[in-house]
Specification:
This protein is α+β, with helices and mostly antiparallel strands and about 325 residues long. It has one domain (about 5-310). It is built from 13 helices and five strands. It has helices at about 45, 55-80, 85-90, 100-125, 130-155, 155-175, 185, 200-215, 220-230, 230-250, 255-260, 260-265, 275-295; strands at about 5-10, 15-20, 20-30, 35-40, 305-310.
Length: about 325
């Protein structure tokens, strides 16, 4: 079993994989071939001074992950829009609109999942007698919005395919961490859930937010809204430390596996069983990362006639 940990993200017709120093995105181009882009990334999120500071490192890691994820999504969109093989192979990882996209995404998520429930409570609090009950109702509304959103987008055909690639990403990482051969047939037999999944992370954020916000009581509406926004990085930092600890001990402790069971169950909303061709893409994304970070025979480079690889300095 590998002692290193790797993470990933599903994108349009593809998968992004990331290690401590390298990332790679593999996408299935319209013509059918797999296009792979790999590049070095800054190791500061893992090895810098901030990486040694609990809670703070979680916020930095999440920001770094979001930035890389948005770039991977843009690369995938470029590959999907290519009309020829040459255009697909020449796809780049744009960054010009990345920060605007990230800002909009953060504002939208904060507004929908944190501010909107508070606005609902501004009306419902007149019927609620205690701060604990108020925060509990707010949590139920927030959780319902999150789960409902995941379920709703999961009914869209294009998103279903993205969720299949999400399942392929999980299976591939599970297979590698178990020391299995990285072939589609071998990877297919591994679980579709993974304890370090971002979906589970979001559920943990929701649970932790209930306990943190309950400590604030039942303040006026404007202070309540401000507290939800300001404390998001703090809550995310706590959630990161929790998922980091549980992920490291998941296979060692039956208690932790039971503790994480609800989080793994929620992953059914954002994952689907992948087919062998999607597993092939996920494996193609992981191999360049492994080759760069811990060379070993199992991670030989994909055949050049099937995969085009571009390397850029990060």
């Amino acid at each position: 079993m590998s002692t290193k940990t790797y993470g990933g993200q599903a994108v349009l017709e593809g998968v992004m994989m990331r290690g401590q120093r390298t990332m790679a995105v593999a996408c299935r181009a319209p013509a059918g071939e797999i296009v792979v882009h790999s590049e070095a990334v800054s190791p500061s999120a893992y090895a810098g001074r901030v990486a040694k500071v609990p809670l703070l490192r979680g916020a930095v890691m999440i920001w770094d992950t979001m930035a890389l994820g948005i770039r991977a999504l843009m690369f995938a969109a470029n590959v999907a829009g290519a009309e020829t093989k040459e255009e697909a192979h020449d796809a780049t990882m744009p960054s010009t609109v990345m920060w605007t996209t990230i800002a909009v995404a953060i504002l939208a998520a904060t507004g929908l999942f944190f501010v909107l429930p508070v606005l609902a409570m501004a009306y419902l609090d007149q019927y609620i007698g205690s701060a604990l009950e108020s925060n509990l109702v707010e949590k139920v509304i927030r959780l319902t919005l999150m789960l409902g959103y995941m379920f709703a987008i999961g009914q869209m055909p294009d998103i279903k395919r993205v969720f299949m690639y999400h399942g392929a990403e999980h299976k591939t990482i599970n297979a590698y961490e178990a020391g299995a051969e990285l072939t589609p047939e071998s990877v297919q037999r591994f679980p579709i859930e993974h304890p370090r999944c971002g979906t589970t992370f979001l559920l943990i954020v929701m649970v932790i937010s209930f306990f943190v916000f309950s400590l604030l009581g039942q303040p006026p509406i404007l202070i309540r809204i401000a507290s939800r926004i300001v404390l998001v990085p703090v809550i995310a930092g706590i959630a990161y430390e929790f998922i980091k600890w549980t992920g490291a001990n998941y296979h060692k402790s039956a208690f932790i596996r039971k503790l994480m069971a609800p989080g793994l169950a929620v992953q059914k909303l954002t994952t689907r069983e992948p087919d062998l061709t999607q597993l092939e893409v996920a494996i193609a994304a992981l191999k360049p990362v492994l080759l760069a970070e811990e060379p070993r025979p199992v991670v030989e480079a994909p055949a050049p006639e099937r995969v085009a690889v571009g390397v850029a300095a990060g």
